[in-house]
Amino acid sequence: MAERKKKRRGKKKPTGKERMDRARKEISASINPAQVMIPGATSRALARVVADPIRVQMLMTSTLRKVSATEFAEEWDIPDHGAHYHFKVLRDHRFVRIIEKVRRRGATEIYYRAVKSCFISDANWAALNPMFKGPISHAIVEELWRVIAQAAEADTLDARDESIIWWEEIPLDEITFPKAMAMQRLLIERMVALGAETAKNQAEGKGGKRFPGVLALMGFEGAAEKKPRKRKRKSKPDGTDK
Q1: What CA–CA distance (Å, rounded) separates 87 from 99?
Q2: Phi (first) and psi of residue 166, to 5 degrees
C-alpha cells in the first residue's frame, strides 16, 4: 500500500506553464505564425498577435466558429486563466469581438468570433499562407448566409424599397477580372466611410433610427460548366450506324 502511494506521489501533473508550452509546440507544428498576414492590422498589433502560437490558433478557431475561452482551454488542455488572457489580448487589439454571453453555473461564459475585416485581403492576400485561405473564405461566406437568414426571418431582407439583391454571371478574362475587383475595392472603401458618416449624424442628432445595414460584395471565378459527354455511336459490321 505504501509503495502504491509513493508511485502516485511521484507522478506529477504538468504545471500550467508546461501545458501552455506543450500547446504552443503542437500548434507551431501545423501553423507557422510568421506566415500569418492580417491586412488592415498595424505592424505593432500584428506582431503582438503572432508572437504567441496560441493566439494564432485562437484567431483561426474564432474565424471558423464562435468559441469561448473556457472551450478553447478544454480543447487544448491549457489553464483557463491563460486562455482568458490571450483572448483579452486579441480583443484589445480588435481581432475578435464578443458575440454572445451565456450564464452557466452562476458564471458568465463569453463567446468570441474573429473580426471579419481583419481577414479581408487586398495586396496581402497573395502572401497569405495557402492553408488559411480556404477556411477563412468559407467562414466569411457561412457568416454572410447566417446574417441573410436572420434578415429573412425578421422580414428585413426586402423591407426597404432601396434594398438591392442582385447577382450576375458575367464573362471576364485575365484583363477584365482585375478591373472588376478594383471597382469593388473602391466601392468597399466608400461604403465603410458611410459608417463614420452615420456615427457623425447620430452624434449630431440627425439621421433618424440607427439600424444594422448589411452591405455585401463578392467577386470570384465561377466553376466551369461541365460539358455533356457525347455518346459514341457503334457501327455495324456493314458500316452503318446502330
Answers
A1: 13
A2: -150, 140
Confidence tier at 125 by pLDDT (50, 70, 90): low
Give per-residue pLDDT as tens, 92-124.
888 899 999 998 878 899 999 988 555 444 555
Q: Which three cell numbers stand for residue 143?
A: 457568416
Per-residue H/E/C for 103-169: EECCEEEEEEEECHHHCCCCCCHHHCCHHHHHHHHHHHHHHHHHHHHHHHHCCCCCCCCCCCCCCCC
Beta bridge pairs of residue 68: 111
Of 239, 123, 238, 224, whose CA–CA distance to 181 is shortest? 123
Residue 100: strand pairing partners? 111
DSSP state of 33: G
Contact 96, 87 (CB under 8 A): yes
Specify the amino acid at residue 146. Answer: R
Q: How large is the average pLDDT for residues 42-65? A: 74
